[in-house]
Amino acid sequence: MGERRSGTRERIQAVAVELFAEHGYDKTSLREIAERLDVTKAALYYHFNTKEAIVVSLFEDLIAGLDAIIGWAEEQPRTLETRQEILRRYARLARERPKGMMRFIQESKTTMQELAPGEDLQCRFRTLTGMLHGPDASLTDHLRTSLALITTSAAVFMLKDTDSTDEERYDAGLELALELVAGAPVESSTR
Amino acid sequence: MGERRSGTRERIQAVAVELFAEHGYDKTSLREIAERLDVTKAALYYHFNTKEAIVVSLFEDLIAGLDAIIGWAEEQPRTLETRQEILRRYARLARERPKGMMRFIQESKTTMQELAPGEDLQCRFRTLTGMLHGPDASLTDHLRTSLALITTSAAVFMLKDTDSTDEERYDAGLELALELVAGAPVESSTR
DNA sequence: GTCTATAAGGTGATAGAC
DNA sequence: GTCTATCACCTTATAGAC
Known about the structure:
The structure is a homodimer.
Chain A: H1 8-23, H2 30-37, H3 41-47, H4 51-74, H5 80-96, H6 101-107, H7 109-113, H8 116-132, H9 139-158, H10 166-182
The structure holds a DNA duplex.
């Protein structure tokens, strides 16, 4: 589609995701976003037809990225190395998202669930979790892989009150995630 | 304080926590709660002065329970057995809460944070996490204990789409939590 | 692309009768 | 304890000028 430039659209997205992560989607009004950008609410409506459309646009890249990982993983053997590479790719993807985005997903799950991209995302996460353990994994294994996915993207803000850099937090998250999936043996199902 | 009976106060709490967990605090209006109970909004205000007061009342027991665990733990030696017993007590506490309560905490963190009990809770969770690892634990250890606490109370709804009973989910959560803190060695600081 | 002005509706909360 | 009626406020969203 068209790529008209003036940057306002991108600025709206950046401010929105930041505010959504900080105060939540419901408590962030279009008035607040507009004020932050020093434009009027009506200007926002030129770029996005609804408030929800902002959210939708925000998650497009993430969903595409998840699909890419899933697509790649489907063609790989179900080995531990593959599972760990899934986590590494997911870590990179999460890390490249705008500040606050993964936090919004993780800490506003209830809200997300009622938004359009919420179901799309949840579906991808379920698929990914399923790939990290075998088809008949134990409940504990299931939990282990779910936690692995969470810690990979959430370590950054979960460790917010520790004395460390973002870099170190990301690394710690991935490290623990790799350890978690390594502890979840899968039955080598060749199909 | 007085314990006037008619049960309406308790019914309000029960419906509220359920709706808060399902649709979030902001999207749950007093009108909705009132309709569900077949009373008017005004009736709600006889029992609770504000919407937030409902939330506050909801978390009183949980906070008291957390303080009890913290108080007990402070008098124990910093051994692995103590740390695991903390998790067992926390598991029992979480399990005894009304349906939806722990889910509301976990999946509406952003909202909770802006509510009165949010800070109180977060403070207790920080304390508890600190007790599960040593004072100079690594970032990974810190993460391990945070995840232990989360999985203990969140396994029930994290495993919602698996074929299992609530009982089994609770047990799986506690099992993984115990395993996580066992993997986080603390420097035996006698003080 | 951005503005002013306004519509239409829901929200938390209050007053006062019963 | 619960009701009816109402308030002030804020929200998302739209119409139309520039």
